[in-house]
Amino acid sequence: MDAVTRVRMRAGNKVVAIEDIYGFMRQTIPEGTKGVVVRCLNPGRLEVRFTLHGLLGDRRALTVRVAPSELAKL
């Protein structure tokens, strides 16, 4: 386990995706996308609201369940 996975996350923490986040039944989140932890789930999962930027300058918010090892605290 590296230092990133040992950081305790709480609701309200600002985070960044340290790798592309993708999987079955969830939207792809590119590496470097910033977000905010909405809530902590069991076992060891988080709900994070990411802000995605579109090609035409538009933005949209997306809430995704992720593992703490996919994130770094800002």
Short description:
This protein has one helix and seven strands. With about 70 residues, it is mainly beta.
Question: What order do the helices and strands come in, and which of them pair?
Answer:
Blueprint lengths: L2 H4 L7 E4 L3 E3 L2 E4 L4 E8 L3 E9 L5 E8 L4 E3 L1
Antiparallel strand pairs: 1-4, 1-7, 2-3, 4-5, 5-6
Give the overall shape, derived from the CA principal axes. globular
Q: Radius of gyration, rounded?
A: 12 Å
What's the number of domains?
Answer: 1
CATH architecture: Roll
Q: What would CATH call the class?
A: Mainly Beta
| CATH fold annotation | SH3 type barrels
| Class from helix and strand fractions | mainly beta
State the strand order across the main sheet.
6-5-4-1-7
- Please summarize the sheet with the most strands: 5 strands, antiparallel
- Output the helix-strand order: HEEEEEEE
Low-confidence runs = 1-5
Helix count? 1
Mean pLDDT level: 88
Task: Tell me what portion of residues adopts beta-strand conformation.
Answer: over 45%
CATH homologous superfamily designation:
SH3 Domains
Q: Helix share of residues?
A: under 10%
N→C terminal distance: 19 Å
The beta-strand count equals 7
